[in-house]
Amino acid sequence: MGTIFFFVLAAVSVISAILIVAQKNAVASALYLIVTLCSQAMLYLLLGASFLAVIQIIVYAGAIMVLFLFVIMLLNLRRDEFGPDKKKIQRVLAFALGAVWLIQVVAVIKLGLSKMSLSPVTPEAALETGSVQTIGKSLFTEYLYPFEITSILLLVAILGSIVLAKKKI
Amino acid sequence: MIPLSYYLILSGVLFSIGVVGVLISRNAIVIFMAIEVMLNAVSLTLVAFSQQTGSPAGQVFVFLVMTIAAAEAAVGLAIIIVIFRSKESVNVDEVNLMKW
Predict the structure, then answer these.
(1) Which tens digits make up the pLDDT trace of A72-121?
(2) What's the pLDDT tens digit per position in B33-67?
(3) CATH number for the domain that contains residue B77
(4) Which of A48, A129, A135, B64 has the fewest Cβ atoms nearer than 10 Å?
(5) What is the rounded distance in angstroms from the CA atom of residue A39 to the CA atom of residue A14?
(6) What ipTM goes with this model?
(7) Which residues of chain B does A88 touch, with a Cβ-Cβ cutoff of 8 Å?
(8) B1 assigned to some structural domain
(9) What domain range includes position B74?
(10) In chain B, where does DSSP find H-type helix?
């Protein structure tokens, strides 16, 4: 049952990721990106990471994608000049490099995993690892310093985007 | 349970789609979306390994990656707006002021 679910979600996320790049209309690409992000959230749920699944939908598919759509609609782009029709040699090279990259990744995964000793995880243990309690505990004890640094990063991002987007300060 | 290698190969495929997307598209916003796809592929790897090892560290990192993605999207889209204001286009081929 879980395997069927995994393959359906994997197919949805891969197809919509391809459509993001293949679309000429930027709004349609953004909507396909939302589909990819939501199917990834479902994959997190399948792994037992319930907290991250919820955060993925709220922060990624909600906040960040609203920002993207807002900017796309603000810019009023000309529709005809886009789409993946760069110089032909560049396209062929891009696909060749992507294929080489993919083959390398799959080969490394196959070689690396055969050397590791993996024990199967029980669903209860997976849910325990992905719960809000476990992640919160580790975020506010062991990883408190990175967490605080992140708040400074967000502050800098807010200030930076205001300074950039404002015509006169 | 689904084997770990399935998740890793799926994230490898998604990452390669992101790489090809960055290389072939000309619209700066679509390039940003392809970068988001790549970030998500890496996040999927982190979550899969985190569940396999039973340690929440990988999921904490994914949480931080999401925060950084939000900051990156905000600043990047502001830069795109500034480019659009001066060039009337978000085509990355036309942004060649610093090209040698």
Answers:
(1) 888 877 665 555 555 788 888 889 999 999 999 889 888 888 777 777 77
(2) 999 999 999 999 999 999 888 888 999 999 999 99
(3) 1.10.287.3510
(4) B64
(5) 10
(6) 0.91
(7) none
(8) no
(9) 27-91
(10) 4-24, 28-53, 57-87
Angle at A151 between CA A148 and CA A153, to 5 degrees: 115
**In B, which residues are within 8 Å of A46 by CB distance?**
2
Token pair, residue A15, equals 């197809």
d(CA A125, CA B21): 37
A residues 122-161 closer than 8 Å to B (CB): 123, 125-126, 129-130, 134-135, 137-139, 142-143, 146-147, 150, 153-154, 156-158, 160-161
Query: Residue B13 has which token pair?
Result: 């495929």
> Residue B18's Cα: distance from chain center in Å?
7
The answer to whether A57 and A41 have CB atoms below 8 angstroms apart is yes
- β-partners of residue A48 are none
Q: Which runs of consecutive H residues, i.e. helices, occur in A48-76? A: 50-55, 65-75
Strand partners, B91: B27
How many domains are there within chain B?
Answer: 1
In a domain, B12, yes or no: no
User: In this structure, is residue B22 part of a structural domain?
Assistant: no
Give, in degrees to the nearest 5, the angle at Cα B45 between B41 and B50: 145
Cβ atoms within 10 Å of A98's Cβ, excluding its own: 20
Return the domain boundaries, chain A: 1-85, 88-121, 131-169
- Looking at residue A151, its amino acid is S
